[in-house]
Amino acid sequence: MKSLYIPKDVRRVFFGTLNTDRKLMFKKEFDTSYVGFMVDGAKWLVENTDIKLVGVVYLSIAAYVHSVQYHHVLLKSREIIRVEGLKLDGVPAGIYSLNCLPLRLVGSEASPIWCILIR
Question: Which BP terms from GO are recorded (predicted)?
């Protein structure tokens, strides 16, 4: 994570991974070999950046074997929103304006959203 040089003033970041190249979102079965965050990566984000929203391409932001520990790190801070299941095919790396439009579900802790990137 440190090698990415995420500037202090960045608040939202989407990570493109090999999950896109492997077209995991189009497979019928859940693939436990997806690329996701490890616990140390989550801790680094919480402790060293001002990020408030993290997004990835696949159904979970945490690596399969680190899922519970990863979520504990992020939930402990209670400030970082996770966005999972993104489709970033053909989206070049860069700085974008982001709008997330959630579906309002009363009494729910999560919701499907539309994320719109504007260059």
Answer: L-tryptophan catabolic process to kynurenine
